[in-house]
TrEMBL record:
MF (Gene Ontology): 4-alpha-D-(1->4)-alpha-D-glucanotrehalose trehalohydrolase activity
Protein name (Swiss-Prot/TrEMBL): Malto-oligosyltrehalose trehalohydrolase
Lineage: Bacteria, Bacillati, Actinomycetota, Actinomycetes, Micrococcales
Main subcellular location: cytoplasm
Keyword Cytoplasm carried by entry: yes
Key word Hydrolase present: yes
Keywords assigned by UniProt, alphabetized: Carbohydrate metabolism, Cytoplasm, Glycosidase, Hydrolase
EC number: 3.2.1.141
Biological process, per Gene Ontology: trehalose biosynthetic process
Active-site residue numbers: 297, 334
Gene: treZ
Pfam family, one: Alpha-amylase
Catalytic activity: hydrolysis of (1->4)-alpha-D-glucosidic linkage in 4-alpha-D-[(1->4)-alpha-D-glucanosyl]n trehalose to yield trehalose and (1->4)-alpha-D-glucan
Native organism: Kocuria coralli
Cellular component aspect of the GO annotation: cytoplasm
Subcellular location as annotated: Cytoplasm
Length: 650
């Protein structure tokens, strides 16, 4: 780059989208600089962002830059090229009819696309040049979701230090376990010093307490060096309750509300700028931080009536950006719509997500393992629900949902959809943290039942995901926690949790105070306990089952037609057939058919379970002693101890 190009690049760092400002001043290290409309600069592309064909007007670069502000070339001599702190003052006119000729100037505001907030989300922004990081992953091309095992990780509670650097020290443990993909809970800037991450207000910022943007880059680079992919959880359906200054720059909200606050404006007046903010953020994670995928939070809360849905555009941006870098990328939606259009390609009029979380399977498995049937678990209080979800992904595929008070969902298409497109779990941040006490299975289930739950998770046909610490039955809870410094907001959060849990039947006395520092401290993993006998037994089961999953092709075969489940609610057993055994219909010959049968006993007594495999079938794994004897029609009967499981191969 020439000297003039370098100078211009330093100025472009401060480009700002503020379509309703009468004037913009950027304060850089205490010095004020007047900005000019970007339309005054020929062929200017704000912050080097990609042009997109959505725009009818715009510059020769193909992008409409109206509403953007930039620094004139004359400012190059006065603006430092090094790291600086900065903020914006917006001059706006009052509404017409109310002294429109008079103007006011805002307080100094952080950058809506701030790469760093060293002093928190209420303070000034700080520049950061992501291109300076010395990446060592030049040979990394990504890792497909199909065949992967995910591990959901919260940086702040994964280690005592709560940082990316500390997390790097434990990556080898994950690879030894058999994990190959880490799904990071949100890391963008939030109010306070610790948080789940879903109260983020600075989408482009990496929380400083975790290590900031450099710490994030080091973490991803270290993951790639070990063959680990990184999926970033992103939240575009709402913004946190404190530190959000976006409404002063653009129409970030529109009429209506979601479960978490004001509705993000995706399709009303001024929504082009909001969509740009989201789509360019997707591009940033892929380009600047080399992420391999996204988990997109609560997509059912993204209200968008445009002809081209925001999810379709996100899919296009993520895939094309990664392809330009020679890498792959995928998107996983958190969706409760039970609509396979979510995971179908854009060119087939799908929404373009590569996969989605599967709550139906979780709810059915949770009931089978725990017996809890309050709230939304009520619909799944029968082993037939788990059997159906094994075979069809969605339990509610047009059936009546008592929790919703209406019918819900539609079936997957086995010709178009594949099991790996559904990410399933027996625990995750929601299903643990959104319990009154944030208690894990290890706090109310026996070791036998924890081992059984590992078998349930790791033999299912979908993409499995573990929640950090699950692999050794961590005794630490993971309750909802916040650190809002504003007393009124802290009280509102407490009361909100009480109201939310009432529908699930939990008492106020059971609810952990999210603002109590001890609530956060209690969630930090304690690795010293892994060597204790019970925890070691759980860990051994996870490690063995992951290894088995990778070595037995029938356990990962990707065809819904090769999955069949037979439940016996009376004795609390279920047999899951995979591979050739999954394709054999009742009454058909099983002679010469190869496949796997997984037998689960969810009851407190020994179960004698008929299985469609010969008596001499190979026993690949069992949670405890299981005995096979001759059964009817050439099959066998397997005796499975209480809360046991056995994997057989014909």
């Amino acid at each position: 780059m020439s000297t003039s190009q370098i100078a211009r690049a330093h100025l472009d760092r401060f480009d700002l989208f503020a379509p309703h400002a009468a004037g913009v001043t950027v304060r850089i290290d205490g010095e004020d600089h007047t900005m000019i409309p970007a339309t005054q600069r020929e062929d200017h592309r704000p912050r080097g962002l990609d042009p997109r064909p959505r725009y009818a007007g715009g510059t020769a670069a193909g992008r409409d830059v109206s509403g953007w502000w930039t620094l004139p070339d004359s400012a190059a001599e006065d603006v430092p090229a090094t790291t600086v702190r900065y903020g914006y003052l917006l001059s706006k006119t009052k509404d017409e009819g109310t002294d429109a000729e008079k103007a006011f100037t805002s307080e100094v505001l952080a950058d809506p696309r701030s790469p760093r907030q060293p002093q928190g989300v209420h303070d000034l922004s700080c520049t950061f040049d992501a291109s300076e990081f010395p990446w060592s992953d030049g040979e990394w091309t990504g890792k497909p979701l199909e065949g992967s095992i995910l591990y959901e990780l919260h940086v702040g509670t994964f280690t005592e230090e709560g940082t990316f650097e500390a997390a790097i020290e434990h990556l080898d443990e994950l690879t030894e376990l058999g994990i190959d993909t880490i799904e990071l809970l949100p890391v963008n800037g939030f109010n306070g010093t610790y948080n789940w991450g879903y109260d983020g207000v600075a989408w482009y910022t990496v929380q400083e307490e975790y290590g900031g943007p450099i710490g994030y880059q080091r973490f991803v680079d270290a993951c790639h060096a070990r063959g680990l992919a990184v999926v970033q959880d992103v939240v575009y359906n709402h913004l946190g309750p404190s530190g959000n200054y976006l409404p002063q720059f653009m129409e970030i909200f529109t009429a209506g509300a979601s479960s978490w606050g004001d509705q993000i404006n995706l399709d009303a007046w001024g929504s082009d700028g909001v969509r740009d903010l989201i789509l360019d953020n997707v591009r940033m994670w892929v380009e600047d931080y080399h992420v391999d995928g996204f988990r997109v939070d609560a997509v059912h809360a993204l209200t968008d009536h445009r002809a081209r849905h925001i999810l379709q555009e996100m899919s296009q941006v993520a895939h094309e950006t990664a392809a330009r870098a020679g890498r792959s990328c995928y998107l996983i939606a958190e969706s409760d719509m039970n609509d396979p259009r979510m995971i179908e390609p854009v060119d087939g009029n799908g929404l373009g997500m590569d996969a989605q979380w599967l709550d139906d399977w979780h709810h059915a498995a949770h009931w089978a393992l725990t017996g809890e049937e309050q709230g939304y678990y009520e619909d799944f209080a029968d082993l037939e629900a788990l059997a159906k979800s094994y075979e069809s992904a969605y339990y509610h595929d047009g059936s009546y949902s008592s929790f919703r008070g209406r019918s819900h969902g539609r079936p997957v298409d086995p010709d178009r959809n594949r099991p790996w497109q559904f990410v399933s779990y027996i625990m995750n941040h929601d299903q643990v943290g959104n319990r009154a006490a944030g208690d894990r299975f290890s706090q109310f289930l026996s070791v036998d039942r924890q081992v059984l739950s590992a078998a349930v998770l790791l033999t299912q046909p979908f993409t499995p995901m573990l929640f950090m610490g699950e692999e050794w039955g961590a005794s630490t809870p993971w309750p909802f926690f916040t650190s809002h410094p504003e007393p009124e907001l802290a009280e509102a959060v407490r009361n909100g949790r009480i109201g939310e849990f009432a529908r699930m039947g939990w008492k106020e006395s059971e609810i952990a105070d999210p603002q109590d520092p001890e609530t956060f401290a209690s969630a930090v993993l304690q690795r010293a306990e892994r060597d204790q006998a019970d925890h070691a037994r759980v860990y051994t089961a996870y490690r063995e089952l992951i290894a088995l999953r990778r070595s037995v092709p029938e356990l990962t075969e990707q065809d819904f037609r090769s999955v069949r489940a037979v439940a016996d609610q009376g004795q609390g057993s279920l047999v899951l057939y995979r591979g050739g055994l999954g394709r054999v219909a009742e009454g058909e010959s099983r002679e010469g058919v190869h496949g796997v049968a997984v037998v689960f006993n969810f009851s407190a007594t020994t179960a004698s379970v008929p299985v469609e495999v010969p008596e001499e079938a190979e026993q690949l794994w069992s949670a405890s002693d299981a005995e096979l004897s001759a059964g009817a029609l050439g099959g066998a009967v397997v005796s499975v101890p209480a809360y046991g499981a056995v994997i057989l191969r014909a």
